Structures are given as structure tokens and as C-alpha cells.
From TrEMBL:
Keywords: DNA-binding, Transcription, Transcription regulation. It comes from the Bacteria. Residues 54-126 form the Cyclic nucleotide-binding domain. The keyword Nucleotide-binding does not apply. SMART domains: cNMP, HTH_CRP. Pfam families: cNMP_binding, HTH_Crp_2. One of its GO terms (cellular component) is cytosol. GO terms for molecular function: DNA binding; DNA-binding transcription factor activity. It comes from Vreelandella halophila. PANTHER family: CRP FAMILY TRANSCRIPTIONAL REGULATORY PROTEIN, HTH-TYPE TRANSCRIPTIONAL REGULATOR ARCR. This is Helix-turn-helix domain-containing protein. Residues 189-261 form the HTH crp-type domain.
Length: 268
């Protein structure tokens, strides 16, 4: 994919209006704001920022400081949020819509790595390092709103707060564990096993039901096929096979697991 022909959101940053009453957000990018007292995060119930595990243990003033220096990115479908190899100066929270994460192979084709939807954080690990680089391209799949935060400010907070540093380390460890699980799925030798393992990985850990479990495919099927290292027609064939065996039902991107134990037995 060309680095020059794809539009980016860098010049489309706007103020977030009528979405939150948080003064820190309202003052984002207002460089000469004079305040008598430090801003404090109001911890609004609907706000995805303070509720996210990555920001756990941050105080109200730290959260407000991050938000005051944040930016809102409004992307149309197909716009780039960031590019692989660029300095990770900012990290992101997806507010609405979805983002595709991918790399470009030496042959120039896309290799889909995954996606991110509402309330998900992107590039937080890379932004924690002063030399961090974005590990993938991030491109919107649909009209998407993303808020970005200063990596430099985050590093200052991590360096000055041992309790927050421990929280970041726990978060990074969990992220690495998820990456290992994703790579384990890709090591499966055949497409059927990769797809079944992937479907089972979408089930919330607390859900122990054997039947009637509904999962949502986070990517369109063509992109999901790329992520699972198979051709789109192979994905369609395996889904049909599982459906004909009475193991799943498929409705667009919604998959109902009719026999969870049967799926596990099916791939051994």
C-alpha cells in the first residue's frame, strides 16, 4: 500500500463537542488556557477513558492532564490513523467505529493482524518507549472517531508513579499473553483448526455454556481470512462445513456456537 496516496487523519483533528461535559476534553488543544485550579477528571459514567484498565490507578489530575492534551480524530472509511515504523508519539482510544491493523509484505500485499473497536486502546505499549515505533498500519474500516494521547506525557506519569508503572506492566503482560494466544492459533496446520480455535477464543472467559453462545466477528470475512492465513473461499467453505454439521449458525458477522464441545472435538 502506498504511503502517499492514502488519506490520513492528521489534518482532520477537531474538538469533541456535545459528547462529554468533561472540561479537560473541552480544553483539549487550547494551548493558552489559564486555569485558577488544576483540572480534575470528573470520571463521567459514559467516558471510556477513565474506565479503561490501562488508566487504572491514575489520579484525577493526571487523567485530566492527559485529556487536556488529547486530540480527536474523525476518520472516513479507509483513512490511515498511523503507519508502521513511524514514531509512536501518540496512543489512541477508539470511541466509535473500527480500525484494521495490518502490515505490508515484501510482495506488497496486506497481512491483516487484527482490528480494534469502541473502547479499545491502540499503541499504548509502543508509546511507553521514547524510541517506540508503531508496529502496524492502522486504517479505519468505517466512519470512525478516535482520541489520541501524548506518549511523552504518559512516560512522565509512568516514571513518576511506581504504582502506575506496576499497572502498566500488568497490562503489557496481559497484552503479550493475548498475542501468544493469537500466534498459537496461527500455528494450527489446517484452516479448519485455525478457524475453530479462533471462534472459541472469541467466547468470554466467564461464559461456560456449551450451546447458544453468540460471538461477533470483529472483521469482515475477507479480512478475517487474511488474519487467519487462508483464502476467503477457504473461510467460506469451512464455515459452511461447520454449519452443515450443526456446530454453528452464521448470520452476517454474528456466529452462534451450537455445540461448543463438538467444535473442540471436531478439531481434536
Amino acid at each position: 500500500m502506498s504511503r502517499h496516496n492514502t488519506p490520513t487523519a492528521n489534518n482532520r483533528q477537531t474538538e469533541e463537542a456535545a459528547v462529554t461535559s468533561c472540561d479537560a476534553i473541552k480544553l483539549a488543544d487550547v494551548t493558552h488556557a489559564k486555569l485558577a485550579d488544576p483540572l480534575l477528571c470528573p470520571r463521567l459514567e459514559h467516558c471510556a477513558i477513565h474506565r479503561h484498565p490501562f488508566f487504572q490507578d491514575l489520579g484525577d489530575q493526571d487523567l485530566a492532564s492527559l485529556c487536556q492534551r488529547s486530540r480527536l480524530h474523525t476518520l472516513e472509511a479507509g483513512e490511515m490513523l498511523c503507519r508502521e515504523g513511524d514514531r509512536a508519539e501518540r496512543f489512541f482510544i477508539v470511541l466509535s467505529g473500527s480500525v484494521k491493523l495490518f502490515r505490508v509484505t515484501d510482495q506488497g500485499s496486506e497481512r491483516v493482524l487484527g482490528s480494534a473497536g469502541a473502547d479499545e486502546v491502540l499503541a499504548e505499549v509502543a508509546a511507553c518507549s521514547p524510541d517506540g515505533r508503531y508496529p502496524w498500519y492502522a486504517q479505519s474500516l468505517e466512519p470512525t472517531r478516535v482520541r489520541s494521547f501524548s506518549g511523552a506525557l504518559l512516560r512522565e506519569m509512568v516514571a513518576g508513579r511506581s504504582d502506575y508503572m506496576m499497572n502498566v506492566m500488568r497490562y503489557v503482560a496481559a497484552a503479550m499473553s493475548q498475542t501468544v494466544e493469537e500466534r498459537t492459533i496461527l500455528t494450527a496446520q489446517n484452516a479448519r483448526e485455525r478457524l475453530v480455535q479462533y471462534l472459541l477464543s472469541l467466547v468470554p472467559g466467564a461464559d461456560r455454556r456449551n450451546t447458544g453462545v453468540v460471538v461477533e466477528l470483529p472483521l469482515p470475512k475477507g479480512l478475517l481470512a487474511s488474519q487467519l492465513a487462508m483464502q476467503p473461499e477457504t473461510l467460506s467453505r469451512v464455515l459452511k462445513e461447520l454449519r452443515n454439521r450443526g456446530l454453528i449458525q452464521v448470520a452476517q458477522r454474528q456466529v452462534t456456537l451450537l455445540d461448543r464441545a463438538g467444535l473442540q472435538e471436531f478439531v481434536g
